[in-house]
C-alpha cells in the first residue's frame, strides 16, 4: 500500500480507512494479531483485514459491517490527526492546479503542519518528483516524517526542522513551485525565490487575514515576481431532493370548448382536480454554508 500507488490486497503494516458512513470513518494501521473496536463490533486484523481486497465489505463481531478503503490524500485529509489547522480539498485542488504541478515537479513547502497538502502534492509529483517540506516545530516535523514513512512516500519527501524565514528551504535553484503557509510569508519570499529555478516557477501563499496578503503582495513585487493575484475559494454544495409542486389551475384553454364538454355522470359538467400536483427533483442551496477559510496569493518568478 502506498498513497501514490494503488494495491489490490491489504498487507500487514498498511494504513486502511474503515468506512462506516460519509460522516463516520477513521484510519487504522493493520498489524498481525491487532484488533479495532467499532460500534458494530470488533475487526480482527489477522482474519478480517490481511489478505482482503481493498474496498471489501467486512463483517464485524456483532454482525454489522464496514467497508475497508484504500487511503487517498482526500480521505486522509478527512481522517488525519490534527496537529494544526489544515487545508481541505477545495483549496488543495486550486493550489495544485495554479502551481502547475505534474509528475516530476520539485516543490518546496512550509509549514508541513498535519501533512494534508503534503500528501496531495506527493501524489501529483510522483513517481520522479520531490517535495522539500519545512516545519518549525520539532515534534510535528518528526511525526510528519514518521507518517510519510508509514505511507510509503518517504523516498519522495525531505522533511526539515528549521525556521524557513531565517534559514530557507535548504535547497537553491531547484524548485518548480513554492508553497507558504506560515504567519509571516512576506519574510520568506526571498528564500522562496532563491529555492526556485533560475527562470520561471510559481509561488503560492495561504493567509487567513487580508493584512497578511497585502504585505505578501508587496514583498512579491519587490522581488520582481509577476502575475500576482489573490483569490478566495468558497464551496457551495447544493442538496438534490424530491419536492411536490401543486399544478396551477389556468382555466379552460378555449372558452368555446366549455359548451362542448361531455357531461359527467349525473349530467353535471366534468371538473378538474384542484389538488393536482407533480413530484420533481430540484437542487436546493444550503441555508448556511462554510465561509472564509483563507486567501490564496499566486505569483510567477520573472523569466529574466
Could you explain how this protein is built, in words?
- The protein has 304 residues and is of the alpha/beta class.
- α2 (73-79) packs antiparallel against α4.
- Helix content is 23%, strand content 27%.
- It has eight helices and 15 strands.
- A hairpin with a 5-residue loop joins β5 and β6 (65-69).
Alpha-carbon Rg, integer: 28 Å
Q: What count of helical segments does DSSP give? A: 8
Integer average pLDDT = 91
What is the chain-wise order of helices and strands?
Answer: EEEEHEEHHEHEHEHEHEHEEEE
Global morphology: flat
Brief account:
With 304 residues, the chain is an alpha/beta fold.
SSE topology:
Layout lengths: L14 E7 L2 E6 L5 E4 L2 E4 H5 L7 E3 L5 E5 L3 H7 L9 H10 L7 E5 L5 H10 L4 E6 L2 H13 L6 E5 L2 H4 L9 E4 L8 H7 L6 E6 L2 H13 L3 E6 L7 E8 L30 E8 L10 E6 L4
Parallel strand pairs: 7-8, 7-10, 8-9, 10-11
Antiparallel strand pairs: 1-2, 1-6, 3-4, 5-6, 11-15, 12-15, 13-14
Helix pairs in contact: 2-4
Amino acid at each position: 500500500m502506498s498513497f501514490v500507488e494503488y494495491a489490490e490486497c491489504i498487507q500487514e503494516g498498511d494504513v486502511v480507512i474503515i468506512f462506516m458512513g460519509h460522516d463516520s470513518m477513521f484510519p487504522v494501521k493493520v498489524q498481525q494479531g491487532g484488533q479495532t473496536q467499532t460500534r458494530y463490533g470488533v475487526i480482527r486484523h489477522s482474519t478480517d483485514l490481511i489478505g482482503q481486497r481493498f474496498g471489501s465489505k467486512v463483517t464485524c463481531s456483532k454482525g454489522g459491517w464496514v467497508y475497508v478503503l484504500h487511503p487517498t490524500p482526500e480521505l486522509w485529509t478527512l481522517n488525519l490527526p490534527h496537529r494544526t489547522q489544515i487545508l481541505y480539498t477545495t483549496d488543495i485542488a486550486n493550489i495544485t492546479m495554479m502551481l502547475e504541478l505534474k509528475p516530476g515537479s520539485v516543490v518546496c513547502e512550509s509549514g508541513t503542519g498535519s501533512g494534508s497538502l503534503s500528501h496531495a502534492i506527493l501524489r501529483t509529483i510522483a513517481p520522479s518528483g520531490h517535495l522539500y517540506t519545512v516545519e518549525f516545530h520539532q515534534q510535528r516535523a518528526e511525526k510528519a516524517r514518521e507518517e510519510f514513512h508509514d505511507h510509503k512516500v518517504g523516498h519522495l519527501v525531505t522533511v526539515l526542522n528549521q525556521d524557513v524565514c531565517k534559514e530557507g528551504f535548504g535547497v537553491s535553484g531547484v524548485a518548480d513551485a513554492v508553497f507558504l503557509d506560515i504567519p509571516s510569508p512576506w519574510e520568506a519570499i526571498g528564500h522562496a525565490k532563491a529555492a526556485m529555478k533560475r527562470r520561471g516557477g510559481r509561488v503560492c501563499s495561504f493567509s487567513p487575514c487580508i493584512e497578511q496578503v497585502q504585505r505578501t503582495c508587496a514583498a512579491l513585487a519587490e522581488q520582481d515576481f509577476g502575475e500576482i493575484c489573490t483569490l478566495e475559494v468558497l464551496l457551495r454544495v447544493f442538496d438534490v431532493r424530491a419536492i411536490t409542486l401543486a399544478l396551477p389551475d389556468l382555466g379552460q384553454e378555449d372558452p368555446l370548448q366549455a359548451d362542448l364538454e361531455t357531461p359527467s355522470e349525473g349530467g353535471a359538467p366534468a371538473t378538474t382536480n384542484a389538488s393536482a400536483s407533480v413530484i420533481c427533483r430540484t437542487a436546493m442551496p444550503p441555508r448556511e454554508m462554510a465561509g472564509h477559510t483563507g486567501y490564496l496569493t499566486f505569483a510567477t518568478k520573472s523569466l529574466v
